[in-house]
Prior knowledge:
Helices cover 24% and strands 46% of the residues.
Amino acid sequence: MKLDARGAVMAAKKYFDEIQELIGSTLQDILLEELELSEDKNFWLITLGFNRPVLKTKNPLFPELVASPEYKREYKLFKIDSETGEVQSMKIRQV
Length: 95
């Protein structure tokens, strides 16, 4: 039985949750951004977006005193096998 769209999104999210600690920072606001079934219907292409904290310093003389967290939006593209639900790849998605 072929994996439906919801199942493909859940497979991508589960995989992303499992490897999140390897990315090295606390990610926030993980959301589904794009969903597409390949033309041959063999793969789901799922884009998840998230915010990654980035420290910006306002005063270079005293960065530890005036650093404030800001966030950068990033995206990951997952290729999911539509038959098995297995993640085939995860890539950086440029927008």
